[in-house]
């Protein structure tokens, strides 16, 4: 009789150990996925900062040349490129050195919490499939006449 209880007890121990191993494996997978996502974001930010150096130089040159051209030709239309260039450079600077990534993350979390049900369509139910099947049968029978 002692053998039956010991095999049941060892089975429970093995089951508990397997559950603990699975929990540990899942925790490690989640940690690895989070680490990979953080590295991807860091790489993207570093890439954008490198691009920003070139964008700022080119944009600064456009602004200076537009201002000089406007002054030289006494025509205010030559300053028009300054406004979109300044807004683009400002946007990129805010992305690279500001808190734009944080704002985007907060906004996406808010959207997920508030309205994800209206954004993602629900999968078809069994009733929907049956209704559509009946519609197709009716259309088929009408087409045969």
UniProtKB/TrEMBL annotation:
Listed PANTHER family: PLASMINOGEN RECEPTOR (KT), PROTEIN CBR-TAG-281
Source organism (scientific name): Caenorhabditis briggsae
Domain of life of the organism encoding this protein: Eukaryota
Protein name as it appears in the record: Plasminogen receptor (KT)
Pfam families: DUF2368
InterPro entries with a match to the protein in the record: Plg-R(KT) (IPR019319)
Gene Ontology cellular component annotations, sorted alphabetically: plasma membrane
